Amino acid sequence: MTVVVMTLVVRDEADIVDAQIAYHLNAGVDFVIASDHESQDGTTEILESYARDGHLLRIPVQGEVRESAWRTHMARLAVAEHGADWVISSDADEFWWPRGESLKDVLAVIPARYAVVQALVRSFGPRPDDGGFFADRRTARTSLLVSGEGTTEPLSRALRPVYRAEPEMVIEPGDPTLGGRRVPLRAWYPIEVFHFPARTADGSAGVVDDAQLDGLLADGSLVVDTRLRDALRSLRDAAGEGSARRFALPADGASRLSFPVPSVVDDASYAVECAAVGEVDLVRLDRHIRELEQRISLLEARFWPRVVRRLARLGRRRR
User: Fold this and answer.
1) Residues 29-73 pLDDT 10s
2) Counting beta carbons within 10 angstroms of the beta carbon of residue 172, is it exposed (0 to 12), middle (13 to 18) or buried (19 or more)?
3) In this predicted structure, which of 25-29, 99-103, 203-207 has the lowest mean pLDDT?
4) Which domain, by its residues, includes 308?
5) Most buried residue, 19, 38, 39, 104, by most Cβ within 10 Å?
6) Which residue in 110, 199, 160, 166 sits closest to 281, CA to CA?
7) 53: domain CATH number?
């Protein structure tokens, strides 16, 4: 059976982390490892609650952020301690939605030669804060079918990787293929990432009000997508009154969520969006190839003069 472990780096995420963990444990994640970076808002208590029930390992971390080091450490723990086949390196504001029955199912069919599977990012913009749950008010996301200015994720951030696990794996957030040493699966994105970026510091910049929302929906820059809202509502309903947690976990190992199979129309629309993304990592690979070519040129520039000098010395000795 395919084992999927999710890793998190969190800091003061109490408004979202409970829903995020419960959702993924229902979506096919087997275990969660979280680096807790000096949280002060109740995040630590939520993580410890899941840890007590055996669903999560909390790792306290302090000081300056060391993203790659922390994520690499957690990924290697996922392999060594939990037998992970795949590692989802996530943030607390990301919800990974499988275009199949579960995350486990869509990852299980990936051919062994591929070490990275890309997921398409769906960004849900900030809405005016009405004091309610974030997923209830944030149901409009960006679309790649049109290219309105300021309405879509930059293509360099349109994809997020899932990693095939290995004992000495390295997580480098800015370079998932490690310069091409990991083979990525191209042109098929079997997972969507619902991204709910936090508000800006002043609480207003970037927030889409009702009038702006209507305009962006009308021109297709934003589309209504209630899949996560509905999923989290069902988990809240299943948790029951008086539950210590707000979101229910799988019952006897069975998920409480049902992920519908995409329709033909939905698949066709999704294919167009995927084509719009293109192979964004090719730019990164091209850069690495150019760097490698420069290094080879430098080595050759140093190597051949040495060969010529060595041959000249040998020629003089024979005389």
Assistant:
1) 999 999 999 999 889 999 999 999 999 999 999 989 899 999 999
2) middle
3) 203-207
4) 280-319
5) 19
6) 160
7) 3.90.550
